[in-house]
Amino acid sequence: MAQNVPRDVAELEDALSRPPAGVVETMKRIAGDIIVLGVGGKMGPTLARMAKRASDQAGVRRRVIGVSRFSSPALPDELRRQGIEPIACDLLDETALEHLPDAPNVVFMAGMKFGSTGQEALTWAMNCYLPGMVGRKYRHSRIVAFSTGNIYGLTPVSRGGSLESDVPNPLGCYANSCLGRERIFEHFSRAFGILTAMIRLNYAVELRYGVLVDIARQVWQQKTINVCMGFFNAIWQAEASAMALQAFDHLATPPLLLNVTGTEILSVRRVAEQFGRLMGKPVRFEGGESPDALVSNAQRACGLMGTPAVSSEQMIQWIADWIMKGGEALDKPTHFEVRNGNY
To answer: Where are the beta strands (DSSP E) in 183-298?
Structure first.
């Protein structure tokens, strides 16, 4: 991505879907079509487009299929223009799921987080029952499934972030159901020999959405910032997508576990102060930093696929510029500050 902030959404989405060389090489090595289940989320469209662009650059002809309920009626046409085949489907409809095309490569991005409080049954159905249906339907495929660092629970910041070898300690309905998702995929991986990777992501950031955007908008609007959840990880969304697609080179049974995030543990206070300087705004805080947080160590993923090139400093500068010029926002807070697991 160029060092200048994208001028508009079209430039941003082009940057978010631009494949690095490693993804092009992966798309050259793997065989067959790719189906993205849950393509309609915040990250799905640009990940699917990256897979298509990388395949084209690799000289590989393959279908990239995107499946979603498509709550945004404009998205299917956008995907078609980008060479991606959209299929509208309620994935919890077993008949509809069974009629989806087979594909050797599956990216599982479906799930439920926000609104899980009060809709616990649907949360568990989406995050646990659906993976079982997918594991049976795609038992002859290779699967990269998205999970979350929330399954670790709060960990002392001084440890440098949770490792994949740590015993999960999820807090709340959402995190527990996400651990359930992992266990279901593990079961089907072991039962059918499905080569799988679990992408424990936290947190993907772009200019319209993410933890850094949440903090920046609070600073811009001169709101008081609570620092009780005082630390976090972040990764530029394009690099998270790239790592997920490159994970097709590193699948295993039982599943390979990969923390996908940035290499730094960021301080909410310091990041807010930096936004304040860039935006010319005073910053107010409340509360005090707790010694633990939802933070992960991405050493394993970086060792396999390389260290993210976009630094937190660059993301902060891009986001500050974007917000100050009135760039589009998705208006979907991450609720990263939640410490009790209730989303």
So the answer is: 196-201, 204-205, 225-226, 231-232, 235-236, 256-260, 266-267, 285-286, 292-293
Give the model's pLDDT for residue 1: 38
Q: What is the pLDDT of residues 132-152, one digit of tens each?
A: 999 999 999 999 999 999 999
> Residue ranges per domain, the chain?
9-202+236-263+297-310
pLDDT band at residue 7, thresholds of 50, 70 and 90? confident
Q: What value does the mean pLDDT take over residues 215-241?
A: 96
Could you tell me if residue 222 is left (phi over 0), alpha (psi between -120 and 50 degrees) or otherwise beta?
A: left
Match 């941003």 to its residue by tokens: 12
User: Rounded to whole angstroms, how far apart are CA atoms 68 and 8?
Assistant: 26
Q: What number does CATH give the domain 9-202+236-263+297-310?
A: 3.40.50.720
pTM of the model: 0.94
Give the DSSP H or E segment for 25.
helix 21-29
Provide the Cα torsion 223, 226, 232, 236; round to 10°. -10
Cα 112 to Cα 126: distance, rounded to the nearest angstrom: 6
The answer to whether 229 and 339 have CB atoms below 8 angstroms apart is yes
> DSSP class of residue 317?
H
Average pLDDT over residues 174-189: 97
Is residue 249 left, alpha or beta, with left meaning phi > 0 and alpha meaning psi from -120 to 50?
A: alpha
Residue 109 has pLDDT above 60, yes or no: yes
pLDDT in tens, 294-329: 999 999 999 999 999 999 999 999 999 999 999 999
**CB-CB contact of 249 with 29 (8 Å):** yes
H-helix segments, 193-264: 211-220, 237-246
Mean per-residue pLDDT, 198-222: 96
Contacts within 8 Å (CB) and 24+ apart, 54-62 = 54/19, 54/23, 54/24, 54/26, 54/27, 54/245, 55/27, 56/83, 57/19, 57/24, 57/27, 58/24, 58/25, 58/27, 58/28, 59/28, 60/27, 60/28, 62/27, 62/32, 62/33, 62/34
**Contact status, residue 58 vs residue 27, Cβ threshold 8 Å:** yes
CB atoms within 10 A of CB 44: 24
